[in-house]
Design goal:
It is built from four helices and no strands. By secondary structure, the chain is mostly helical. It has a domain of 49 residues.
Length: 158
């Protein structure tokens, strides 16, 4: 395989890995936020269950406190509902841990499969390309980037 063809295949493979990682991140993000909430300062304030909203435990408390009188809950019903919410929150946390562990296992297997296909020199180029893509992605998000290289896209407002 000539150099151009090899670079094309490596570039295509990096693109596929990037898209798979992006898809996995989009799929796993709600599960992570369900457990720990979004990063501080993220999103719009005041939207329950959305980025920037209250954490699930506080949201449950507020919901039950607000509707307890409206739907005429007994103290026993209120306690049972709180237990249901807490049980489900714990189960979702366990599911998130299972998903994260499975994702990491799959990622390691994919890395092993790639290493079995590529030569050590190709693997080095491949890994460097992944690092470069991560740096570029961080740069587009405004957290720095590779020094000395122009940023892509529009610059800051005049």
């Amino acid at each position: 395989m000539n150099s151009t063809s090899a670079r094309l295949w490596v570039g295509l493979f990096v693109l596929v890995v990037f898209i798979a990682g992006l898809g996995a991140g989009v799929a796993v993000r709600p599960l992570i936020w369900m457990n720990s909430g979004p990063p501080a300062g993220f999103g719009r304030p005041g939207l329950a269950g959305r980025p920037g909203g209250p954490p699930p435990a506080r949201m449950t408390e507020r919901l039950l406190d607000r509707i307890a009188a409206d739907i005429d809950l007994t103290a026993e019903q209120d306690q049972q509902l709180r237990e249901v919410f807490e049980t489900r929150r714990q189960r979702l946390r366990e599911i998130n841990d299972e998903v994260r562990a499975r994702f990491e296992t799959e990622q390691e297997q994919m890395n092993d499969d790639i290493a079995a296909i590529l030569t050590p020199d190709q693997m080095e180029i491949f890994e460097n390309e992944i690092v470069r893509m991560r740096q570029d992605r961080r740069g587009r998000r405004g957290r720095g980037g590779r020094p000395g290289l122009p940023r892509r896209g529009p610059g800051p407002p005049g």
